[in-house]
Amino acid sequence: MVSLAMMVVAATLLPGCNSCNKDQLTNKEVSDTIKQDLTLSPEAKNLLYEFPTPFEVTSLLEQAKAGYIFDITNPITNTGKYVTEKTKSLNLGVYSADLAYSATYNQVDNTNKFLGCTSKLADELGIAGVYHPDLVEKIKNLGNNKDSLVALVSTVFLSTNDFLSANNRNQIAIYIAAGAFVEGLYLASSLNVVASDNTQITTIILKQQDNYNKLVAMLELYPNDEAMKSINDEVVKLKPLFMDYGLVENQKLPQANADKVNDLVESVRNTLIQ
What we know:
Elements lengths: L26 H5 L10 H9 L4 H9 L21 H20 L3 H18 L9 H7 L4 H13 L4 H4 L3 H25 L4 H8 L2 H12 L5 H10 L19 H19 L1
Helix pairs in contact: 2-11, 3-4, 4-5, 4-9, 9-10, 9-11, 9-13, 11-12
């Protein structure tokens, strides 16, 4: 399984969207500065590198014949408003999930758009990687070959497998994991609302509980880090999702419950992308 840490390479692929004008940072934004000297415990490192990429969710959604809806992804125009290291890292994860979603559904134009957005955020975070100036043309030339598109994007992810760890960018890696997980869950819950039979998508959502527990375990290892704690405070709001909303494996979820699930996930997701 390709670990989520490998996905950071998506950030280094293309010249991104136009850089935004950065206003003077507020005190809160300064407090969001990422600690460059954060050392992962062996437990946290194992959890991070066992964490799957969003391809796990998007591939299952495609297999369940859920549709592709571009409007549920994070708007590309939002990249310009992420000015702190924390918001850039979180939304690098969010856009990585949107990238996987588009690639899985063979949406070539949108895949290129999300590559541009991840590139912009990664460049501003100082994340280096393998640059492929001909990647856009390669993607265009793939035509309708979905498997080749996914394989190409996955290969690029793999090429920077150990970059963050080797360069002591551990906190960024955890933020990316959080952003990607929440966005993948949001894509699934949004599609669950509109599905004529949401049995399979409900099962996909329910099976994310293990990854949710891994993410919370990583965040809780750093109770004295205010930035990490603020993310954990949002992520733990998702805990009732797996217990209180009537999700049962291989059973259809009533529309009212599907709406409530989506509302809960969207509320947490909105705190990350705002």
